[in-house]
Specification:
With 146 residues, the chain is mainly alpha-helical. It is 50% helix and 5% strand.
């Protein structure tokens, strides 16, 4: 086999391995986000359903005025639909948000109420089981304007 043929064969094999790695990463990425969605929704307390139904993913850090006020009967299903459309090569920064104006008070607590930490605990649980460096992650809870 000549050097040229070996080079071509190597390139073809390398391209096939890169495609496999991309598929594995995409599957891992989507499963991770789906698991986060399930955990945070399951951990969310319910009185009216507004907080539990208010979870959603977004590609934008700014307020999604039309989206944030929607109360979803199946927030995990809505987030799963969002995840299925993601391209891990472009969509590396995803925001998990809640449209309820009091979500941060329930997450972090107040002087009169203990924190429920639905999102924080869920992220820490995932980090404990996977190769995720939470110390380097930009985990920010933003209160969206009502």
């Amino acid at each position: 086999m000549g050097a040229m043929q070996a080079n071509v064969r190597f390139q073809v094999e390398l391209d096939a391995e890169v495609k496999k790695a991309h598929r594995r990463f995409t599957l891992w990425y989507r499963r991770l986000l789906q698991e986060l969605a399930r955990k945070v929704v399951a951990r969310t307390p319910v009185i009216t359903g507004r907080l539990k139904g208010g979870w959603y993913f977004s590609k934008s850090s700014s307020g999604d005025a039309k989206v944030q006020e929607i109360i979803r009967s199946d927030p995990v299903g809505a987030m799963r639909s969002f995840i299925s459309k993601l391209d891990p090569e472009r969509d590396l920064l995803i925001y998990i948000k809640n449209g309820a104006p009091y979500a941060s008070f329930v997450e972090f607590g107040t002087t009169k109420m203990s924190p429920r930490a639905m999102l924080s605990i869920s992220i820490l649980e995932l980090a404990a089981r996977r190769d995720i460096d939470v110390a380097r992650s930009d985990v920010v809870f933003t209160v969206l304007p009502s």
